[in-house]
Write a structure and sequence with these properties.
It is a single chain. The chain contains nine helices and 23 strands. 22% of the residues lie in helices and 27% in strands. The radius of gyration is 24 Å and the shape is globular. The strands form six sheets. The chain has an eight-stranded mixed beta sheet with strand order 9-6-10-12-13-14-17-18, sandwiched between helices. The chain folds into three domains: 47 residues, SH3 type barrels (Roll); 206 residues, 3-Layer(aba) Sandwich (Rossmann fold); 110 residues, 3-Layer(aba) Sandwich (Rossmann fold), CATH 3.40.50. The protein is α/β, with parallel strands linked by helices. It starts with 5 loop residues before the first strand and ends in a 17-residue tail after the last helix.
């Protein structure tokens, strides 16, 4: 039997049928059940029989000519990889990035009822491999598509660092059309995949009036609606749930009903064609996000200073605190013209460094309060500000540029 064959395993009077997968132990057999989940059984006590030899699947045509319908808006899909563009590799058992943007459209025919598409593969990576120069290239690709007449942009992306990309594009682009980032928690070959629904809801937002960088993902664990999150306010809050993405310190921009494709908005937003396209595609990559933990050595700050980093974001405790022995490091960084922005590990709520003595000492040493920004958003914003308006870091980090902070944080979000 070969990997990818359909087999039946009998054990203790029960039988299990599925596709043969790789096993890391020679005395165990692993199969993928029809419900998408894998099980492993001890082989010496099981009976394994072949049901059907695996058929080699022909890949979808990457150069497929997409059907174009008169009267539908023009949307560009830019693929960067991730689970939404992935399937199981039966040679390894791992989920790998294999689909092109065109293949995603071909695999979800409902998309062609919503818009006409151009499709480009920008990267084919899992999102942990994203970095600043990739974000800059992606922003340029988005701008190119808008200049070429795209009425909406969809970016397919891995979920693990999707929120960093959302923030980066939010600062680098002022857009007259929707720029929608979408991913999936489960690969397209799984029955429980969220890829199709997320993509359909993303396409619906891409032709809407919401001209912002936003993230569209499942709103619940059911297939009922997706939420529309502002690109600077969203965070992945669970490793595997389909509704992992939540807006932090602000309600979502809106929601999309899956069946009716109706959009309901909850917040004011930038409207289509309200502004001209502006591309500000520079980032300073030499910035770091440092998480403070009890007892952590203050030499951590000195390491980044000595290595020539240009900016630091501290993820402090509670209202935004670090130990008192870190304050000299903050002062040294500030004196060497390295801004230090303080955020909170609590995520929800805002910084308040005037409440306790430690916070006041941090401010005296030159720390900049990150208000109610998420730590990763503060990091990306600092990268953008240092590259584009370095003489205004202190003022701009405390001022909203892309909806990333507010002057009053609601208690209920």
């Amino acid at each position: 039997m070969d990997l990818g064959d359909r087999v039946c395993i009998e054990r203790n009077g029960a039988s299990y049928e599925g596709v043969l997968m790789p096993s890391r132990r020679k005395d165990h057999v692993v199969i993928k059940l029809d419900n998408g989940y894998n099980i492993g059984l001890y082989l010496p006590k099981s009976k394994l029989t072949l049901v059907e030899k695996g058929r080699e699947l022909k890949p979808l045509d990457r150069d497929k000519q997409l059907r174009r319908k008169a009267g539908l808006p023009q949307v560009s899909i830019l693929s960067t990889g991730g689970t939404i563009a992935s399937k199981v590799d039966y040679r390894t058992g791992a989920v790998t990035s294999q689909f092109s943007a065109g293949e995603i459209i071909a695999a979800i025919p409902e998309l062609e009822e919503i818009a006409n598409y151009n499709a480009r593969v920008i990267y084919q990576i899992l999102s942990e491999n994203m970095r600043a120069d990739y974000w800059m290239a992606l922003a340029r690709a988005v701008a190119e598509e808008i200049r070429s007449g795209a009425e909406g942009i969809i970016i397919t992306h891995g979920t693990d660092t999707l929120m960093y990309t959302g923030a980066a594009l939010s600062f680098m682009l002022k857009t007259p059309v929707p720029v929608v980032i979408v991913g999936s928690q489960r690969s397209s070959d799984r029955p429980s995949s969220d890829a199709a629904m997320n993509a359909i809801c993303a396409a619906t937002v891409a032709i809407s009036d919401i001209a912002e960088v936003c993230v569209v993902m499942h709103g619940t664990t059911s297939d009922d609606y997706c939420l529309i999150h502002r690109g600077t306010r969203v965070r992945k809050m669970h490793t595997s749930r389909r509704d992992a993405f939540q807006s932090i310190n602000q309600p979502p921009l809106g929601r999309v009903d899956y069946l009716s494709r109706e959009i309901q908005t909850f917040l004011p937003y930038h409207h289509r064609s309200e502004s001209e396209l502006v591309l500000m595609d520079r980032l300073e990559p030499q910035c770091a996000l440092v998480k403070y933990t009890p007892g952590a050595s203050p030499e951590i700050l000195n390491y980044y200073i000595d290595k020539g980093y240009k900016g630091l974001v501290l993820e402090g405790t509670g209202l935004g605190h670090v130990a008192s022995d870190w304050i000299d490091g903050i002062r040294r960084a500030t004196e060497e013209n390295i801004p230090v922005v303080v955020t909170s590990q609590c995520l929800r709520g805002r910084i308040g460094d005037l409440v306790y003595d430690t916070g006041r000492y941090m401010l005296d040493a030159g720390a900049i309060e990150g208000e109610d920004m998420l730590p990763e958003v503060a990091l990306v914003k600092l990268m953008w500000v240092l590259a584009n308006r370095p003489n205004e870091v202190r003022s701009l980090m405390r001022r909203p540029l892309a909806g990333e902070l507010s002057f009053s944080t609601p208690m209920c979000v």
